[in-house]
Amino acid sequence: MVNNTFLWGGASAANQIEGAYVTDGRGLSNIDLLPHGEDRLAIAQGRMPYNQAKADAFYPSHESIDFYHHYEEDIALMAELGVNAYRFSISWSRIFPTGLEDTPNEAGLAFYDRVIDLLLENGIEPIVTICHFDVPKGLMDAFESWKNRQMIAMYEKYAVTLFERYKGKVKYWISFNEINMILHKPFTGAGLQIDEATENRQQVIYQAAHYEMVASALATKRLRAIDPDAQLGSMLAAGDYYPYSANPEDVLVAQRANQENFFFLDVQSRGAYPRWVLKDFERQGIQIDMTEEDLALLAENTCDFISFSYYASRTSKADTSGVDTNTGNAAGGVVNPYLKRSEWGWMIDPTGLRIVMNTIWDRYQKPLMLVENGLGAKDTVTEDGKIHDDYRISYLEAHLDMMKRAMEEDGIPLIGYTMWSIIDLVSSSSGEMSKRYGLIYVDRNDAGQGSLKRLKKDSFAWFKDYISK
């Protein structure tokens, strides 16, 4: 173990594991409207209205792996694994079914009471993401989601409800999962549908991002008053952009890509908009509804820690003609010829984890938490019910080695590591179950068929042994 207080665990998201999508009063969310199949990407990008999906489309989030009815079994497996932390999200529409209600849904709160209490009984620290790619459909209908300033008050009401309910039980909160994903998949990230015939795409995205960051700052302010012992962190889909070559044009393109990616942390950690983005807004004619009160909130309520996901580095090239751009990752870029790739085309770059840990620390000097890292791969169950996933073990071992080197040799203060994911779940990017990340296998296929039986993979025993040392 890195040290006696280090948080070792796994991570998940409500919309990817819970299922029970209309059970006990839960309302619909944006991800419940995101189908599996060929329409998924266009809808995720906000370019295709969700109601134009094929009539017979399959919606994998509706049942997922049914954590809602299997949470006791799954938490028992976590306890057996020996983890002392579990990062999960709360479903906004399970607490406020449309988002518009004044009174929360007690059945939803009671479900998370049971989950949190059982985690604590097993010595597992709950790390809670308030909003993990999650917007109630009712708020999309009423306000067009985060296009509207009124969303800040809706989020505040939701966050305060959680803070008051779980005061003293949850020490670590994360305001928005991978907040920068709004740049690439605005419907997935923030429930945004953009009519590019009548709307400026960048205007819509950056205005929504501003409202989210103000909401996060306001939640930080409210948490400090309600539960001063708790902390609230920001969360970024991280990975440095490398220049494809020493050509200054490639270096410049990579520099700008990194600026765009770290823009969110600049605001949430430093408390102010960087100059380059204000100049960029001016050049593009983007006018953000940004009040003096907003700016004061951002300045006075910066995040307590920075959480981040890391799956792969990215590579930028000024002239992409004749170069493979199929990276499989929403963040784009070009294929790095020095790296191996996963079955889904993602770059595998353990050294990139050490690089990005140094980058984030150098920029912000705030404690870090690595809350997603893992390998999506196809697993095969043998006749005797075993899953031999040496490829996953190799991936995790290489990344954990670099994580430890960043901590021990570079002095980076990391609070914890929660791998993605402790259990198989629906892939956010593709909607597939066959893109498996877990240490625990779940018998369910891409069409939603299967017994939901849980099986421990070889990586389960390996990770248990690794974190016990």
UniProtKB/TrEMBL annotation:
Family from the record:
Belongs to the glycosyl hydrolase 1 family.
From which source organism is this entry?
Aerococcus agrisoli
This chain belongs to which protein, by name?
Answer: 6-phospho-beta-glucosidase
- For this UniProt record, give its keywords in alphabetical order, as a comma-separated list: Glycosidase, Hydrolase
- Lineage, top-rank taxon, reads Bacteria
GO CC entries: cytosol
Q: Which NCBIfam families match?
A: PRK09593.1 (NF007158), PRK09852.1 (NF007356)
Read off the InterPro entries from this record: GH, GH_1_N_CS, Glyco_hydro_1
| Pfam families named in the record | Glyco_hydro_1
Gene Ontology biological process terms in this record: carbohydrate catabolic process
The EC number(s) given in the record are 3.2.1.86
What is a GO molecular function of this protein?
6-phospho-beta-glucosidase activity
Top-level taxonomy = Bacteria, Bacillati, Bacillota, Bacilli, Lactobacillales
